[in-house]
Amino acid sequence: MPAEKPHLNLVIIGHIDHGKSTLVGRLLLDTGQIDEHLIRKYEEEAKAKGKESFALAWVMDRLKEERERGITIDVAHRRFDTDKYYFTIIDAPGHRDFVKNMITGTSQADAAVLVVAAPDGVMAQTKEHAWLAKTLGVDQMIVAINKMDITQPAYDSKRYEEVKSEVQKLLAGIGYKDVVYLPVSAWNGDNVTDKKNLSWWDGPTLIEALNALKLPSKPVEKPLRWPIQDVYSITGVGTVPVGRVETGVMKPGDKIIFLPSTQPHGVIGEVKSIEMHHETIPKAEPGDNVGANIRGVGKKDIRRGDVAGHVDNPPTVAKSFTARIMVLNHPSVITVGYTPVFHIHTAQVACRFDALLKKFDPRTGEVKEENPQFIKTGEAALVKIVPTRPMVIERADKIRELSRFAIRDMGQTVGAGIAVEIEAREIK
Description:
Helix content: 10-25%
Radius of gyration: 22 Å
Shape: globular
Number of helices: 7
Number of domains: 3
Strand content: 25-35%
CATH topology of the largest domain: Rossmann fold
Low-confidence stretches: 70-75, 93-102
CATH superfamily of the largest domain: P-loop containing nucleotide triphosphate hydrolases
Largest sheet: 8 strands, antiparallel
């Protein structure tokens, strides 16, 4: 068996109906991951429902409800290979209600493909998703300007340039550098693996751009941090938590502690075996989405949002923390006492704004005001936060991967940020 290719987690983001799922379906089809006959079957089903253009998207949207509504609800994971890498593709929903799935999806990604439909250009969620990707630490970005087959006239290079400069302005404001832009038609397959109707284009195809992504260095030397996404109880096997290793290395025989867990001082178990993509592996490293059979831990002892670490270097449970935040979208102002939901790794915890310490100029980082009365959309601030129940968060300078969070309220992303200081809860 050949050595495993290097692995990258790729998230596909962008506004609803800009063609994310179709692009994923096209990537899977053109790299030989799915059979042409399966697509034909979907096309016929889609035609019968009068939704012909959704056929490729259905490869990802296997949930019946998604087919009926024509939108992506949950985050779907699919593997696909290029000659250089193997990718786990995270198809993140663009629809408003589903941003929280988008957050858990994006925080796992090494790189993002931002899909922008050429006829529409930058829309509300194009901005929101780009902001989130940056805040959640996704530093590599490819922009696929999609639906080039339905510009007026079709494959219009002028329209491509207009949309590109619109997106460039947005991404530069957020702090993205070295972004790769390219035109595509996911529906027709132009410039995914070959140029086809985009003969005027002299840049890379999407596959070439994906192959040019850099492998992030794996934080293997950091302490083990394994946020839990789901917990299964498998007959004859035992308790199997599932999640993506963020930092450190986990091996069979390791003694690990889950925090905050249902027990006040966490629960401890031993790793018996580790699986990824249904195969047993000798160790789990950062970026690996794994399930592990844990001895000595019951299914009811742990839950989504807990984090596992080695017993000699347990995850930090915060009593309170100081964070740098950016307010992205709040209808009025944020004051002391405001208690929205914080999404951090796989946890969702209501947290209270306990003190507003400083207000910064978001472009220069200079302090504009000490102890401000309020903060509003577009402003950056240093704040003290108190979680309403125990949660794991780490300092950005120690374990950046677990310091990032998004703030959600009223069905939207209000802000995002990173923890810079933590007052840890005493573990007796």
